[in-house]
UniProtKB/TrEMBL annotation:
SUPFAM superfamilies: Activating enzymes of the ubiquitin-like proteins. One of its GO terms (molecular function) is thiosulfate-cyanide sulfurtransferase activity. Keywords: Nucleotidyltransferase, Transferase. It comes from Leifsonia tongyongensis. This is ThiF family adenylyltransferase. GO terms for cellular component: cytoplasm.
Length: 487
């Protein structure tokens, strides 16, 4: 849910007299490859006489039927919420709560054709819990409840996502923001889209921070021309044409400080519906791509599916004689309450169509349209500045330094050493932000294309020389020995 929606529900459910209260909302699904998320769409406040507050609060049938009718008309599912004023952490159901939700499960399904969602708010620490009712007998508990705004707040179901133990390698990390923050941050599922110079660095540092689940998405391979930026990639990686996600996975496992880390490799394009489905399984996404089309897809996911997207990039400018003129890098987090990439001028709608058609790589088109050739300069010394800027956004989003969240979009100008805060605001007719919580009803931007699949298939089918294969085998054996001895 958005932070604004959560505040509205919290303000109603937590009463000044200390009694319980009830509330009804609606939701829409966001369906990933392995996970389904219920996105809270609207809050339906009770009218006079539609609920009883007498220690244990209760709904009236009139309230539930009215809300069910509104949910059906909007094509949404039904959410029944109640508060436990003295509750703290993930709340379980009392026998009375269970009976109430079970009783209304049939009403919700008959009206909306969707499962009932039950939610509870603990009044002591404003922690949420949630469960789906797929039948009247037993609820299916959610893994977490996320409130998305410039600060990301997550309540975890410890039974499904246990708090990981702090390892000796994490002592300084934990001393920076405490065990409670570490326990939440480490359980986040984070996806890095683009495993180039910036993405590769970010992925390793997330693993070193102690995250348990990190995914990397890229369908490209390491080349010799990448080695001045992809720190950790080797000449052997380039000679073998290893996939960037395989190299990232190897380096992440080496850097990991958690006792058990799961690195997921996704050799797909985020512009493909398969890539989008994968992305919807994650809690936070790093956008480390520089093309308009993939950035537009991620821009849409940030709002339609309430998955914070941390985006940025670098542009270097040179004089005619090749000397460095200037460098600019940017960092911004896309969440409700902050403007999207289009609103801050970092995404042009027309460029998305051109990118789909491949015209941004066509020299004849670029010349005929009098467009500038896309900048391709980058160096390791400065790409590290971009990754650090994006990671600072991640820390602000999840650890809330100074009890603040992510800042307005930032831009650093190298030549004058100035850090600028953008004054851009959300456009009133922004198609991305106006689609907030659209979920599965999002306007599709991704499309099935064979280009990236061809690249992956050609790499997989390529045969290398016997000498290269022998060196790769030796490297693999040495790595296994190291893991056995150290582990």
């Amino acid at each position: 849910m958005t932070g604004e929606t959560e505040a509205a529900m919290r303000d109603h459910l937590i009463r000044s007299d200390g009694q319980e209260d009830v509330l009804i909302a609606t939701y829409g699904p966001s369906t990933g490859l392995e996970r389904t998320t219920a996105l809270i769409r609207s809050v339906i406040l009770p009218r006079d006489g539609e609920r009883h507050v007498h220690g244990n609060a209760s709904f009236t049938s009139a309230y539930v039927l009215r809300a069910a009718s509104e949910a059906r008309a909007a094509g949404h599912g039904l959410v029944l919420l109640h508060s436990h004023p003295g509750g703290e952490g993930w709340q379980r159901l009392s026998s009375m709560d269970r009976d109430t939700e079970s009783e209304y499960e049939r009403v919700a399904r008959a009206a909306t054709k969707m499962p009932l969602l039950g939610m509870t708010l603990g009044g002591q620490d404003t922690a949420w819990s949630a469960r789906f009712w797929f039948d009247r007998t037993t609820p299916t508990w959610a893994e977490s409840v996320r409130s998305v705004s410039p600060t990301l707040a997550v309540t975890w179901n410890d039974d499904l996502r246990a708090v990981p133990g702090v390892t000796a390698s994490q002592e300084r990390t934990v001393s920076s923001w405490g065990e409670r923050a570490q326990g939440s941050i480490s359980r986040l599922r984070v996806l890095v889209v683009g495993s180039g110079s910036v993405g590769l660095d970010i992925a390793q540092r997330l693993a070193a921070t102690g995250l348990l689940n990190v995914g990397v998405m890229d369908y490209d391979a390491v080349e010799t021309r990448n080695l001045d930026r992809m720190i950790g990639a080797t000449r052997l990686d380039a000679a073998l044409g290893r996939s960037k996600v395989d190299v990232a996975a190897r380096l992440m496992k080496s850097a990991a400080t958690a006792a058990h880390v799961e690195v997921r490799r996704h050799e797909v394009s985020i512009t493909d519906p398969v890539g989008v489905s994968i992305a919807l399984d994650y809690d936070v996404i790093f956008s480390c791509v520089d093309r308009p089309w993939p950035r537009a897809v991620l821009n849409g996911i940030a709002y339609a599916d309430l998955i914070p997207v941390i985006d940025g990039g670098i542009a270097l400018d040179t004089f005619a004689d090749g000397r460095l003129r200037n460098g600019i890098w940017r960092a911004h987090t896309l969440v409700p309450g902050r403007p999207c990439m289009a609103c801050i001028g970092q995404l042009v709608a027309g460029d998305v169509s051109l990118d789909k058609l491949g015209l941004l790589d066509d020299p004849e088109y670029i010349k005929g349209a009098n467009r500038e050739v896309p900048s391709s300069q980058n160096v390791a010394a400065l790409s590290a500045s971009v990754s650090s800027a994006l990671l600072a956004q991640f820390v602000s989003l999840t650890a809330h330094p100074g009890r603040r969240g992510v800042p307005d979009p930032l831009r650093y100008i190298l030549s004058t050493h100035m850090l600028e805060h953008s004054t851009a605001t959300s456009g009133p007719y922004c198609p991305y932000e106006n689609a907030t919580t659209a979920g599965d009803r999002r306007t599709p931007i991704a499309e099935h294309r064979e280009g990236w699949r061809t690249i992956v298939n050609n790499r997989t089918a390529k045969k290398h020389s016997l000498r290269l294969r022998a060196v790769a085998k030796l490297e693999s054996v040495v790595q296994r020995v190291i893991n056995r001895v150290v582990g």
